[in-house]
Amino acid sequence: MGVKLEVFRMALYLTFPVAMFWISNQAEWFEDHVIQRKRELWPPEKEGQRQEIEEFKERIRKQREEKLLLTAQQSS
């Protein structure tokens, strides 16, 4: 029984990863499940959103610079 059991276990150990690799590399499956799920979780950005983020970053940077400048002037 020992040899048959070991052969079965070895076949199982080799078959499972190969099967998972084969399934996950199917282009149709990848497009249907992975790419669709990715688009649901992270929808593509709109150009207006990108511009708003850049403007917000610029405002924060300017505020920090002004605060640093005031701190430097007060300490002098």
Give the averaged pLDDT, no decimals: 88
Helical content, roughly? over 70%
Low-pLDDT segments, ≥5 res: none
How far apart the termini lie comes to 88 Å
Number of strands: 0
- How many domains, in number, for the residues? 2
Brief characterization of the structure:
Residues 1-27 form the signal peptide. This protein has 76 residues and is an all-alpha fold.
Descriptive account of the structure:
With 76 residues, this protein is an all-alpha fold. The protein has 3 helices and no strands. It is elongated, with a radius of gyration of 29 Å. The mean pLDDT is 88. Belongs to the PET100 family.
Quickly list its features:
76 residues, mainly alpha, 2 domains, elongated
What does the secondary structure layout of this molecule look like, with pairings?
Elements: H1 2-24, H2 27-41, H3 47-75
